[in-house]
Amino acid sequence: MADAGAPTTFYGQAWVEGRTGSAGLTAGLTAEVGFGPNGTRPDDADAGWSWTSAAFNADVGNNDEFQGAITPSTPGIWDVAFRYGLPAAFSGTLFGDRSDRGRAGSDDGYQVENAGRLVVPSASGRLKLATLNLQCLTGDVPARLDAAAQRFSQLGTDFVALQEVCVDATFDAGAADSASRLAAMLTTRTGRRFVSGFAQTHLANNVTPEGIGFVTALPVSQVETVDLPLGDFQRKVMIEVVATPMGMVAIGVTHFSFRAQDAQLRVAQANAASAALNAVAPATSRQVLLGDLNATPAEASLDALRTAGFTDAWAATQPGLSGFTHTSTNPTRRIDYAWLRGPLEPVSAALEFTSPFRGSEYVSDHLGLSVELSGR
User: Fold this and answer.
1) Per-residue pLDDT for 91 more than 60?
2) Cα–Cα distance measured from residue 332 to residue 323, given in angstroms and rounded to the nearest whole number
3) What SS3 state is found at 203?
4) Into which CATH architecture does domain 126-375 fall?
5) Average pLDDT score, the chain
């Protein structure tokens, strides 16, 4: 993350078989570092990328490492890449993307989703989030997902936390689970490229893989899944570090144990989720915890989140209103939440899917919760 007009240094490495293993800069090897609008390709002449010469920095194993600085002058989420030239070894120019965390670098060609990222935050930047329990495979799943996609498209939602995500072999378009199916629907409806993630927690009815997940149109730089204290089954928190108009934000998606006798267990799960967010992102950074916490506002598990420095987005923006989310046909409890920590300000919060989408059918047995955030 950088301020507009401030240079930021990036590092890139190149390996050429039989050439880069010797000490010092490989003769004829050149490098540039560039940036362009998020989601574009550096080899597209019309995409508006800017390039700066990168200097040899050091030998790293058999690689030549280069460094160069880029200086975006306006706020935005920028993709960053290196391009290398060595006429004796390459035909044209080779573009380099990320090779960390299991990524393949240029071995699989340039992949837009694996670009480096630089966020130049905007004072007016906003982030639109939502959380929704998908109720696994109950009822007409494609129709329920389509109704959800329609609403999230209308809202301009950037990120949706999902619970009771389930795998269904009948999904089309290569969608293995309900999160990936929803991502495909949102991509079609909005023209934005939505990606998804899924972490299995158990087998619903001892048959269907079920878990938590997310869909987002924001660039994802990191995903970590952490086990929570064990209860009815292995609950988890799935943490995504995403690039937003206000900077990098760590978003945790979770679903706490539901049994009445698990109140103290939910305290332990809340503390573990809080600790997991701090382990992935600095404690002073922007953090969000979204999900079905199976606890009403007065329960000790939510007191644990308040003690850990989290703010309840609904309570902050809708004081005095119940915000009941379960069950959708006759809501009597608030158990779905957006909790914020760090320099984030809740702008608004609203309940979604409060009416049947057709006949007497609801999108889920939970109401959805949408929130809009700003930085501070």
Assistant:
1) no
2) 9
3) strand
4) 4-Layer Sandwich (3.60)
5) 92
Tokens of 162: 């999902």
Q: Helix, strand, coil: what percent of the chain each, to 5?
A: 20, 40, 40
- 345's CB contacts (< 8 A; 6+ apart) are 373, 374, 375, 376
d(CA 292, CA 145): 18
Residue spans in the chain of domains classed CATH 2.60.40: 8-120
Distance, CA of 57 to CA of 38 (rounded, Å) = 27
| HSE-CB of 258 using CA atoms within 13 angstroms | 10
327 preceded by a cis bond (ω within 30 of 0): yes
Q: Considering the entire predicted model, what is its pTM?
A: 0.84
N-term to C-term CA, the chain: 15
Residue 139: left if φ>0, alpha if ψ -120 to 50, beta else—which one? left
What's the CA gap between 65 and 58, in Å, rounded?
5
CATH 3.60.10.10 in the chain, residue ranges = 126-375
In this predicted model, what pLDDT tens digit does every residue of 306-334 receive, in sequence order?
999 999 999 999 999 999 999 999 999 99
CA nearest neighbour of 34 among 56, 45, 50, 10: 50
At 168 the pLDDT is 87
Residue with tokens 């049947």: 356
In what helix (H) or strand (E) does residue 54 lie, and over which residues does it extend?
Answer: strand 50-60
8-120 folds as: Immunoglobulin-like (2.60.40)
At residue 238, the 3 state secondary structure works out as: strand
As a residue count, the chain comes to 376
- How would DSSP label each residue in 342-355? SSEEEEEEEEE--S
